[in-house]
């Protein structure tokens, strides 16, 4: 019996996540790369293999023309720009292509007009959109729901990230969006909390709805900063004394004013010279999922952050797993009913074996 035709995939944007997604597509036996949209003019017209930095050409030419990409024959688009654009997503869906993305729609609000417009575009075109990723997009809701099934009488669910932000190879984002190296006032008033809010609040609400918590209407957002007590070594720009060197965010669902679900992010420029004296708690960078119930269960994820700063600047595992979680969903997303589909709507998808280890 012949193998079924591979699903044709377009990569939208080739930052860290986009490049990792292309590599996962190339490794996936059910997928093939059909096209690639790029933002910058210097990538336009180049072979995607050259953009990835591999020796062989892939026979797929990157383009900055949206019209050309939308005209391609493809089954799915991995949509991974820095900031999502609803009009772009609606256009992709309208061209008859499914979408997986790490930049939104993990658990959209059907009462939100913007979410509703995207959902309607998918239904009208007969295609599916799935929001994925890692945090949010997996650690924050998929894994807490999974391990909560081991418990009864659950009182609190927590998902938390502890990362050294020096390993994130996007210095312009670190400085101007995340707010590192600036004043505390600039960071607190900057765009980061707003950009994170939508995704993490969706994650918290997914857990609350699926588990049946009676939460207060508003999800509480808390953000804090720590400043450098001395200059911190960070090559792209100076982290001077008194400037922002760590950030913490909390999103909490409350019942009668008390938190029952917490999603949290801790980003530090290392553990030294911080005020307050934040650290990683003695066990290094990690992601944690904890369910307080009978019995209490705690799951720690290691390996999603690089061993060293230098390794992270070359290939950051957190970026790679974000891409992989999207790409591995593609076969099930393409087979799903039209509309926006979350983890609650899809089968339990998985990664695929390395070359030479798969069944025929």
Description:
The protein is α/β, with parallel strands linked by helices and 360 residues long. The strands form two sheets. The protein has a seven-stranded parallel β-sheet with strand order 3-2-1-4-5-6-14, with helices on both faces. Helices cover 29% and strands 25% of the residues. It has twelve helices and 14 strands.
Strand content is: 25-35%
Provide the gyration radius in Å.
Answer: 21 Å
Alpha plus pi helix count: 12
The structural class is alpha/beta
How far apart the termini lie comes to 10 Å
Say what oligomer this is.
Answer: single chain
Give the secondary structure arrangement, pairings included.
Layout: E1 7-12, H1 16-27, E2 31-37, H2 48-52, E3 62-63, H3 66-70, E4 76-79, H4 86-94, E5 98-101, H5 113-125, E6 128-131, H6 142-148, E7 152-164, H7 171-176, H8 184-189, H9 192-211, E8 220-228, E9 244-255, E10 258-268, E11 274-275, E12 286-294, E13 297-301, H10 309-314, H11 317-327, H12 330-335, E14 339-340
Parallel strand pairs: 1-2, 1-4, 2-3, 4-5, 5-6, 6-14, 7-10
Antiparallel strand pairs: 7-12, 8-9, 8-11, 9-10, 12-13
Helix pairs in contact: 1-11, 4-5
């Amino acid at each position: 019996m012949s193998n079924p035709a591979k699903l044709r995939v377009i990569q939208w944007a080739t930052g860290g996540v986009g490049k990792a997604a292309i590599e996962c597509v190339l490794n996936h036996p059910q997928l093939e790369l059909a096209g690639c949209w790029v933002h910058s003019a210097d990538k336009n017209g180049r072979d995607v293999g050259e953009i990835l930095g591999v020796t062989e050409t892939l026979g797929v030419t990157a383009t900055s023309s949206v019209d050309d990409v939308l005209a391609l024959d493809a089954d799915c688009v991995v949509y991974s720009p820095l900031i999502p654009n609803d009009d772009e997503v609606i256009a992709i869906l309208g061209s008859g292509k499914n979408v997986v993305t790490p930049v939104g729609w993990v658990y959209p609000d059907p009462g939100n007009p913007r979410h509703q417009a995207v959902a309607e575009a998918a239904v009208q075109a007969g295609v599916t959109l799935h929001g994925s990723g890692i945090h949010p997009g997996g650690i924050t809701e998929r894994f807490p729901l999974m391990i909560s099934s081991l418990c009864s009488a659950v009182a609190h669910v927590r998902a938390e990230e502890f990362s050294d932000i020096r390993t994130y190879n996007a210095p312009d984002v670190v400085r101007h969006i995340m707010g590192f190296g600036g004043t505390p006032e600039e960071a607190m008033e900057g765009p980061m909390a707003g950009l994170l809010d939508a995704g993490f609040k969706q994650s918290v609400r997914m857990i609350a709805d699926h588990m049946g918590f009676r939460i207060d209407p508003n999800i509480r957002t808390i953000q804090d900063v720590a400043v450098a007590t001395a200059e911190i070594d960070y090559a792209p720009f100076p982290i001077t004394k008194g400037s922002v060197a760590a950030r913490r965010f909390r999103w909490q669902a409350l019942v009668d004013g008390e938190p029952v679900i917490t999603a949290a992010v801790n980003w530090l420029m290392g553990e030294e010279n911080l005020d307050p004296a934040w650290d990683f708690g003695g066990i290094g960078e990690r992601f944690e999922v904890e369910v307080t119930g009978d019995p209490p269960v705690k799951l720690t994820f290691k390996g999603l952050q690089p061993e060293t700063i230098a390794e992270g600047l070359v290939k950051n595992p957190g970026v790679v797993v974000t891409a992989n979680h999207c790409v591995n969903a593609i076969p099930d997303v393409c087979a799903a009913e039209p509309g926006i589909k979350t983890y609650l709507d899809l089968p339990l998808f998985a990664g695929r074996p390395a070359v030479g280890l798969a069944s025929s």
